[in-house]
Design brief:
With 73 residues, the protein is mainly alpha-helical. It contains 3 helices and no strands. It has one domain. It is elongated.
Length: 73
């Protein structure tokens, strides 16, 4: 096998990482998507995107609760 035949794995874009983390939060993943993600995504990308996604989710819940409570008073 020559150097030209060996290809580096394709690097995932930030949008691909965000989509993978979003669908993983919901627990809905196709097998082929999971296999593609396991090749393209780096663990660091997934960790950072997961932390950002969790922070956005928690802040959204806090804002929603404050909005609902504010309307009740």
């Amino acid at each position: 096998m020559t150097v030209a035949q060996v290809q580096a794995p394709k690097k995932a874009s930030p949008l691909q990482v965000a989509k993978a983390v979003f669908w993983s939060f919901l627990g809905i993943r196709k097998r082929r998507d999971y296999e593609a993600d396991s090749v393209e995504l780096k663990p660091q990308q997934v960790i950072v995107a997961g932390l950002i996604g969790a922070a956005v989710f928690v802040l959204s819940l806090i804002l929603l609760v404050r909005f609902v409570i504010g309307k009740l008073v």
